[in-house]
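Honest question from a wet-lab person: if I give you the sequences of every part of a complex, can you actually get the arrangement of the whole thing, not just the pieces? Trying it with mine:
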Amino acid sequence: MLRILFPYIFILLLVSGCGENSATTIETVDPLPSWQGDSRDALIEFVESVTNEGGANYVPPADRIATFDNDGTLWAEQPVYFQLIFAFDRVKQLADQHPEWQGDSLMSAAIRGDVKTVSGFGMGGLLKIVAASHAGMTTTEFEGIVTEWIETARHPVSGRKYTEMVYQPMLELLAYLRANDFKTFIVSGGGIEFMRPWAEAVYGIPPEQVMGSSIKVEWEESGDSFVLRRLPELNFIDDKEGKPVGIHYFIGKRPLAAFGNSDGDLQMLQWTDGREGPSFQMYIHHTDAEREWAYDRDSHIGGLDKGLDIAAEKGWVVVDMKNDWKTIYPPASE
Amino acid sequence: MLRILFPYIFILLLVSGCGENSATTIETVDPLPSWQGDSRDALIEFVESVTNEGGANYVPPADRIATFDNDGTLWAEQPVYFQLIFAFDRVKQLADQHPEWQGDSLMSAAIRGDVKTVSGFGMGGLLKIVAASHAGMTTTEFEGIVTEWIETARHPVSGRKYTEMVYQPMLELLAYLRANDFKTFIVSGGGIEFMRPWAEAVYGIPPEQVMGSSIKVEWEESGDSFVLRRLPELNFIDDKEGKPVGIHYFIGKRPLAAFGNSDGDLQMLQWTDGREGPSFQMYIHHTDAEREWAYDRDSHIGGLDKGLDIAAEKGWVVVDMKNDWKTIYPPASE
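Yes, you can. This is the full assembly:
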């Protein structure tokens, strides 16, 4: 009998694995193996409720938009944002061509990787370093520079590649949401072109779903060839109130779910919270000094102060990294 | 025997109808019934070649990005851009609240729908009308205003709804490309928020794949509620060299195929043409004075001059609307 039924069982599996609601069917494998506790339960309860076709909270796939901050939400951000380390490395690499930087206290601090001195120069100093490290080349050249760095550079504390300092629980969450027909977007304060070269391989998020801060690019014709050249001029800051503004330009819909870890993500979470119908907000709270870092209200990087209060008030989910995540990073490559 | 094989045949059909390459299988229905001649052949040849998995021109689905201009490419644009008619209608509607407009030669011309006089005021005049008609309200309010207009307004010549002045052959082309795992985007000089409210229903293109020109929006908090308010200030002009720039910000990849109808689309087509590997460029040439409009080199709206020469030089496909399109518009609703 089983022999006769076998093709039909096979058909059943094919049907259930095909089309829009593939992941809402028979699930024998835990979709979030690195999660435990209340935040895990809240995620599963939310996803099941908005994908339950007969239910009161059902949301059609087209509106299942999930937005993720990057630094401190999808990958680590200590001791400083990884993009700043990239900028310092790049300045160091270019130093031979710029002997004048030796006499410049800002640029020589960048060459030494001296974050404290660089910070003293404020936004103006940072922009000067961005101009030196991120502008002047074509978009294609910059993509090559980022790709080479991300493949070779190592984190100063862990010795891991930066793409191995992504959070394993968040990789599972991204996959779980996509399996439930969510469209996943990055909405980062970091540079859009610093993330796009590797975000698809690492997070499964294609370039057109990666948004972030940007500098201006300019169309340049020379004879029969055309390039986009990166200019030393800010185009858009995708942080704080810039996040809902960027979401509006790029996506044109309010997210159904938003994930962040700092006050820079607060407006994105508030914008999502104001959506008509169901919505979901989650803060990753860095509470694990042993396996990662512990920081919140007073931190210069990824400060989470006002957001913690509002999360409590609103009932948003706050992930206690130390207790809610069984693992922090995926296995390192070597 | 057939009886025993039946389940397996069924499985075969399911497998072939499922997943990424669904449309490359058994096709008995003509995917482009309103097309004929060389441009039809070129489209089919191109799509078949980039989706042929063993072939030299194969392009994986993730890179099958197709970008479309809107005005004059997906829908008509005569006697003036439809968004300008919307702006005039809006100004007319607001005139009672602005008695001062009666003494203003620009605004009173807009109220009369007098395009010629308004044109005499140049870009400054246009921006004043945009400010009066497109700014001040929240993004949600503006969406409502556009939605109401698009559902009720009628074209001055055809008497049709504007969404019934989309091109039937282009609707077929959009569907054909998507069935072959292309991701279809609008890249329009028109306003992004003027298109998004109806583009999904009419073209099957969701808001996050609609890009265009935009004005600035501002995050506004009042107590516990948050809105984005539209400001009378330009944010981005998605025309000419703005098109590849916009594509770079929004998509981050060069399109595999690009479709336009005017010199405003030239740089988008050139950017696509410069892609490594195969690519496809198509100009819609308005040659049908009887069923639509005939215009090109000297037209104020949708001028196609330099583009025609470069298309000939580069061998881009130029659609002769009169001969290549069996139908122009879909059936009208009433």
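Two things worth pointing out. Chain A touches chain B through 42 residues (CB under 8 Å). The mean pLDDT of chain A is 92.
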